[in-house]
């Protein structure tokens, strides 16, 4: 059992910290563990139950820590193991659990396993990784074994002279994929997990966990990816997801490790379908508590994960509602959803799904939180989301630090000759650095209180207005709306557990979701537009009396708002939503 006793992940709200960008305690420009410890009161005031901490392990930081060179050590720029222990103790003292990021589809190429593995084919660590012989092209030259393009561009295959083989890396060349077919490697991973659980951490967020079993031909031969564009390299992501042994490996992990502790587990699963969602999170047979699926993240680009995220297309709200509801229906009673609109890999939701202009930024940020937290599942808040932070539009590629963004620029502009202005626009919309600008704490301090040194990535130009100090002082801020939302969810199981049903599914601007649980019947109405919208609800819903619990417009206050006076009755028959208005209503 964890230090805090047993606990129901379904009722929790999780807050994600990206340590590099959260708070810098020692002035070197990089956020760190002592910085996190110094800001735990912010999280406690917000009311979250769990922190998911992105990687803080030893790493050459090629992918900001998602390339780990020692799974049992803290990277010096983030602090020491003593700083870690102190942070964990301070979290637990506030009733907050800690979920660590577990990145074991790949390691760093600077991990000792790999520096050994690459030395010779008979090195004991060689089989910890995935190796293939070259193929010989028509010109007699050596070629990579397949045409798969890595997530961060270039081939997934990197030549290793010492062994005369290529190794596989689905991400950067400094992130070689681990060979989960090897039981010794699996045992090493389980040991690492025990190390952190024995320290008292409360669970894991498992990076690209559905890539650990590769869907390759039974004889180990590798198919080429389908050719969807000019040139040799083709999108290769699907060639490495959801292999046949995934469930087996995760059940083994559960048996070997997780069953011996009280844990929270969430697996990141690109390209996962609802069937995989059920298989992996089923309350009786699933190996994980919940999954991050990506279907709703792929609706505003032409190819999603397969054709690339950079080719933008406008989002249609009907697609978003349909996709979310498909997951709601499939997992109700048969699995469990994690609910997210943002994380360290995604643009800021208010810019992507809301309206980040001055007129509607605050209302639409509150609406998005309300809408997301009103689904069945466990909601995740990514740092800065509770402040309504926006995307950043850096003026040139030189300002971007993210390896995915930089490699995309190099490939698109320098190699393929695409129009730089168009590529920069797609970075403005989709770059991971949108989510990684430092958290502005207090505008009265240098660098808005993030760091006394030079921040590793520029602060958002909004920082003088959009910052934690201001948000906490303003009762109408996005922060306080999230706080009320979290409290409402804690007090009323219907919000976390209730069955969900969509009304107005074909409405292009309105979402109306009904939640039902043990005699409670709630309705959550959101206007995803800058125009007032009459809400054409069926009379089956509008007949009974209704009470507004929480809204995002000052002129319409709900019962949960500490400053509301008088009745919070609301007439659903004549309801007209203001621009970006969101309402949580209890019926009957
Ligand atoms: C996951 C992480 C992302 C990282 C990638 C490779 O998608 O969230 O940040 O770059 O895996 O580890
Ligand atoms: Ca620091």
What does this molecule look like?
- The protein has 588 residues and is an alpha/beta fold.
- Among the domains are: 8-102 and 337-392 and 437-491, Glycosidases (TIM Barrel), CATH 3.20.20; 112-168, Oligo-1,6-glucosidase, domain 2 (Alpha-Beta Complex), CATH 3.90.400; 498-587, Immunoglobulin-like (Sandwich), CATH 2.60.40.1180.
- It is 27% helix and 16% strand.
- The chain has 17 helices and 24 strands.
- The structure holds alpha-D-glucopyranose (GLC) and calcium ion (CA).
- The site of calcium ion has 6 residues, from loops.
Order the strands across the largest sheet as they lie in space.
Answer: 15-14-12-5-2-1-17-16
Overall strand count: 24
Strand proportion = 15-25%
Largest sheet: 8 strands, parallel
The proportion of residues forming helix, as a percent range, comes to 25-40%
Bound molecules: alpha-D-glucopyranose, calcium ion
In the CATH classification, which architecture of the domain at 8-102 and 337-392 and 437-491 applies?
Alpha-Beta Barrel
- CATH superfamily annotation of the domain at 8-102 and 337-392 and 437-491: Glycosidases
How many helical elements? 17
Structure class: alpha/beta
Which stretches are poorly predicted, pLDDT < 50 over at least 5 residues?
none
């Amino acid at each position: 059992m964890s230090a805090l006793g047993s606990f129901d992940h379904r009722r929790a709200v999780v807050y994600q910290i990206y340590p590099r960008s959260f708070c810098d305690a020692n002035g070197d420009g990089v956020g760190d563990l002592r910085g996190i410890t110094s800001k735990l009161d912010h999280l406690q005031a917000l009311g979250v139950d769990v922190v998911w901490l992105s990687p803080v392990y030893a790493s050459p930081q090629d992918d900001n820590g998602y390339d780990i060179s020692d799974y049992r050590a803290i990277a010096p720029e983030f602090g020491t193991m003593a700083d870690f222990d102190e942070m964990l103790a301070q979290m637990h003292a506030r009733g907050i659990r800690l979920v660590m990021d577990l990145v074991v589809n790949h390691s760093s190429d600077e991990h000792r396993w790999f520096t050994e593995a690459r030395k010779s084919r008979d090195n004991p660590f060689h089989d910890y990784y995935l190796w293939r012989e070259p193929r010989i092209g028509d010109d007699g030259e050596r070629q990579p074994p397949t045409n798969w393009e890595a997530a961060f561009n270039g081939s997934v295959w990197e030549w290793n002279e010492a062994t005369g083989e290529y190794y596989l890396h689905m991400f950067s060349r400094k992130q070689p994929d681990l060979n989960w077919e090897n039981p010794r490697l699996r045992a090493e991973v389980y040991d690492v997990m025990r190390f952190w659980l024995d320290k008292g951490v409360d669970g894991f967020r498992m990076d690209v966990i559905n890539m650990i079993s590769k869907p390759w031909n039974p004889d180990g031969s590798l198919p080429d990816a389908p050719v969807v564009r000019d040139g040799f390299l083709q999108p290769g992501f699907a060639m490495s997801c959801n292999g046949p042994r995934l469930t087996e490996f995760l059940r083994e992990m559960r048996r070997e490790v997780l069953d011996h502790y009280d844990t929270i587990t969430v697996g990141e699963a690109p390209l996962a379908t609802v069937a995989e969602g059920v298989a992996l999170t089923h309350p009786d047979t699933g190996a994980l508590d919940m999954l991050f699926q990506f279907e709703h993240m792929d609706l505003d680009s032409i190819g999603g994960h397969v054709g690339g995220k950079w080719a933008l297309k406008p989002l249609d709200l009907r697609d978003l509602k349909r996709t979310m509801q498909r997951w709601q229906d499939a997992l109700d009673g048969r699995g469990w959803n994690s609910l997210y609109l943002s994380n360290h890999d995604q643009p800021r939701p208010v810019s992507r799904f809301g309206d980040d202009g001055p007129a509607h930024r605050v209302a639409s940020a509150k609406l998005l939180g309300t809408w997301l937290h009103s689904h069945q599942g466990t909601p995740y808040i990514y740092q800065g989301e509770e402040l309504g932070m926006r995307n950043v539009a850096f003026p040139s590629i030189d300002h971007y630090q993210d390896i995915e963004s930089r490699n995309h620029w190099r490939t698109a502009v320098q190699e393929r000759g695409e129009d730089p202005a168009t590529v920069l626009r797609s970075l403005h919309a989709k770059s991971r650095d949108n989510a990684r600008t430092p958290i502005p704490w207090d505008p009265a301090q240098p660098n808005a209180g993030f760091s006394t040194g030079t921040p590793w990535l520029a602060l958002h130009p909004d920082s003088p207005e959009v910052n934690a100090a201001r948000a906490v002082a303003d009762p109408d801020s996005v922060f306080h709306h999230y706080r009320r939302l979290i409290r409402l969810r804690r007090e009323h199981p219907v919000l976390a557990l209730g069955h969900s049903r969509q009304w107005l599914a074909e409405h292009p601007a309105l979402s109306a979701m009904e939640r039902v649980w043990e005699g409670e019947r709630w309705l959550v109405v959101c206007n995803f537009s800058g125009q007032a919208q009459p809400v054409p609800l069926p009379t089956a819903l509008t007949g009974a009396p209704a009470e507004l619990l929480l809204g995002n417009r000052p002129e319409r206050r709900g019962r949960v708002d500490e400053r509301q006076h008088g009745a919070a009755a609301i007439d659903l028959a004549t309801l007209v939503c203001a621009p970006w208005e969101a309402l949580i209503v209890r019926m009957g």
